[in-house]
């Protein structure tokens, strides 16, 4: 069909069409340019700032929520909601398609394990401090009456021992003491209290607090929903009350498995949750969610969701030509990366080769030979073929010089191994005694032993007056190198040689027997019955050192020796110490005025109260040997509460008695 361009209407339509084409092209060009345009926002250094400060910065710079995302990482040092890192460097101008990813601290890891300690005998303040210092988040303190365990002291714990997570529920039971020590406590209105405040109130007042949580659209997270005991109610210490706290608005978790990390991040941010991302190797495309926890159910605002994101398949390098050691180091590093998700195993086959022993000759991955880096599924298997040298027969070179032996090893391609030395009566010094022999892989190191020649003990070492310890040390050192000597010792008293000196030795071949001085001896005198001063002088004159000690009071006169550690007439080493014991003499009698007790004053009191009052009176007067006799049942037919008698009893004249005198108090008791 032909077009009439001379027609006026046709020309107008053509002009309009041209204008539209140009406008459309311009729009496309503009759109394409606009997509790559800068936002005009220069990224600040956000590290160390709080989440709220980052959000304020985002709002001030008019960035959308999609242009700024948050993820969380557990950190033991940095406070929660503080920036750890950012995906775009500071001073960089953001483009419109950029997304600034900010990693925030999620505080200490609640799943980190801590070894519990033994709290036996520990007090409440020490226990609560230990759990606070170790960042536990779910410790409950309960209180239990106990007559045997002191107030505020540990009774038991569940679990009792072992390693636990910081977030695990720990229940510690503390003593409230006996029932007569339990106090009345007024329960406050907990509506303005935090969980920590409520727990602190419970531990301070010895009240067991049981916490429960419940989602709520109206009560803020951490605030009180209900308390089982009304405010203003009085309860006894040891009572249990239940506190229900809000866990915040309930949010139904969406499962993002198979979706992108960006989709998950956007949804989590909009629903006021926290997220911890981790990368794992996977057959799933890079950037897709592989797993998450929790996968479903209802959680509270601020809950942490853990999401594993695929990093794609595992990149395995070809290590042909490298050593087996370097390959193992490389594989260990690969398997520890990306949360230890690679799980690549390997096996080794050996092949004789002229290549250096330990060199990788070839590498196969899942049965296919590698020549370059290959991407594979986690759990794949590598087989490496490693070179072993061709076997060489190593001969016995006993009797040759060490230098000739080393030349021999070099000529057959073997390495020099461990060198050891030993004395030998048959092989000359410097000659080979033995070496590794047999079929060995080329390049193997060969161990060998060199002769030090024959060893003879220097006669001056066992001459009279020489030190036996010096002789013994020299023989032990030589025997460590195969000298083969034996040495025996017989101790003898001697007034000529000091202790440890050789009196005489006899040598027969490689056996040496010695008589060794144990030093001078002296006869111990009898010092029992003498004064300490006289006994000390007598022992020192005989050549002994002296130590003294008291046996305390006795019927023997003061400062008289009653015993000695070495019997009189015995022989003991000259200069040794003899210990003597002496008496402090008869025990002195201490007297005091015996209090007079008036029985009628104590009528109507319980026996335990009477005892307590009398103990105080007698103790202050210096008397402690008090015996109480209680008359009950048929011996107390009138069901009386009083003192029957006190023997002996003091009087108004203030008669004195020995403070050790036994005083017998007979009491009518109804218990």
Structural class: alpha/beta
Q: Please, what is the average pLDDT?
A: 89
Discrete helix count: 10
Helix content: 10-25%
Quickly count the domains: 9
Shape: flat
Query: What's the gyration radius in Å?
Result: 47 Å
CATH architecture of the largest domain: 2-Layer Sandwich
For the biggest sheet, the summary is: 4 strands, mixed
- What's the β-strand tally? 44
CATH C-level name of the largest domain? Alpha Beta
Low-confidence stretches: 1-36
Quick overview:
The chain contains 10 helices and 44 strands. It has 671 residues and is an alpha/beta fold.
Describe what you observe in this structure.
Mean pLDDT is 89; it is low at 1-36. Strand 23 and strand 24 form a beta hairpin. It contains ten helices and 44 strands. The strands form 17 sheets. The chain has a four-stranded mixed sheet with strand order 22-26-23-24, with no helix packed on it. It has a three-stranded mixed sheet with strand order 2-5-3. By secondary structure, it is an alpha/beta fold. The chain folds into nine domains: 1-35; 38-105, Trypsin Inhibitor V, Chain A; 113-248, Trypsin Inhibitor V, Chain A (2-Layer Sandwich); 251-310, 2-Layer Sandwich (Trypsin Inhibitor V, Chain A), CATH 3.30.10.20; 314-388, Trypsin Inhibitor V, Chain A, CATH 3.30.10; 391-451, 2-Layer Sandwich (Trypsin Inhibitor V, Chain A); 459-517, 2-Layer Sandwich (Trypsin Inhibitor V, Chain A); 521-582, 2-Layer Sandwich (Trypsin Inhibitor V, Chain A); and more. It is 20% helix and 33% strand. The N and C termini lie far apart (130 Å).
